[in-house]
Amino acid sequence: MKIAFIGLGTMGVGMSLNILKAGHEVSVHNRTREKEKAVAKEGARRAVSPREAAEGAEIMVTMVSDTPDVEEVVLGTDGIIHGAPRGAIVIDMSTISPAATRKMAQALGQKGIKMLDAPVSGGPEGANNGTLAIMVGGDSDDFAKALPILEIMGKTVTHVGPIGAGQITKAINQIIISGTYLSVAEGLTLGMKAGLDMEKVIAAINGGAASSWVLHNRGINVVNNDYPLGFRVKLHHKDLGIALQTARELEVTLPVTAFVEQIENGLIASGYGDDDVSAIGRAIRKQSGLD
Q1: Percent of the chain at pLDDT above 70?
Q2: Catalytic residue among 170, 193, 200, 234
């Protein structure tokens, strides 16, 4: 199958490489062209624009940072819409506005191009290992056609509803995980203030009801006060903005999410926007007198 992959950041490189390794013909494009080289070395064709990447492709995957970036890649002057053949499917795996997703799908539909919104969870580890959780919105027939490609990138691939439903599901994911990061930071800070052996504490509670991906994979970051990049604070902050906007539209109250957004505001203002999102622990540690 001919696949175009646009967006080779922290997640996109691993995802596109997995599609290549599965034997598909892949064209790639990234705004910073240098990042295309790693995938091109494995056999991908480099394209000068999203439009060129989309020419002749059956499926186009986009994985970029924010709503305006997706709109430019899909609908811009050199966007996918000008190169994709009728009947092709755009799979946007970015995390963006549900409302903007629906508008893009409508514009693509006028050209006979289909769209699925398929945001992911699982971080760079999941992207590299092909074990992402993928939540997909769109037409069921389009989902069925795209499923073999999605299953290369994800361990769990779920069709959750019509176009835009994937983005709302991802917003739910980010709402829940934001509270988890905060509670892990609070709990581990309490243990550190009490002088406990925190590796033993993490091992103990990971065996019970408090176990979580965040605790297992990122808890030690809080203990060490070191936050190597997995998923940037500033990108998580962007995701919470989408979640809060969606909540306002639906008249839903999200007090914990709003609080975490404010913590992240402070981290970004202090120059920690490129830290892993577990740097929420940095704020709790400081407020608790550890640092």
Answers
A1: 100
A2: 170
Domains by residue range for the chain, with CATH? 2-163 (3.40.50.720), 168-287 (1.10.1040.10)
pTM above 0.85, yes or no: yes
Q: Is the pLDDT of residue 123 over 90?
A: no
3-state secondary structure the chain: CEEEEECCCCCHHHHHHHHHHCCCEEEEECCCHHHHHHHHCCCCEECCCHHHHHCCCCEEEECCCCHHHHHHHHHCCCCHHHCCCCCCEEEECCCCCHHHHHHHHHHHHCCCCEEEECCEECHHHHHHHCCEEEEEECCHHHHHHHHHHHHHHEEEEEEEECCCHHHHHHHHHHHHHHHHHHHHHHHHHHHHHCCCCHHHHHHHHCCCCCCCHHHHHHHHHHHHCCCCCCCEHHHHHHHHHHHHHHHHHHCCCCHHHHHHHHHHHHHHHCCCCCCEHHHHHHHHHHHCCCC
Query: Catalytic site residue 200?
Result: no
As to burial, measured by CB atoms within 10 angstroms (0-12 exposed, 13-18 middle, 19+ buried), residue 128 is middle
- Mean pLDDT estimate for the chain: 96
Average pLDDT (98-107) is: 97
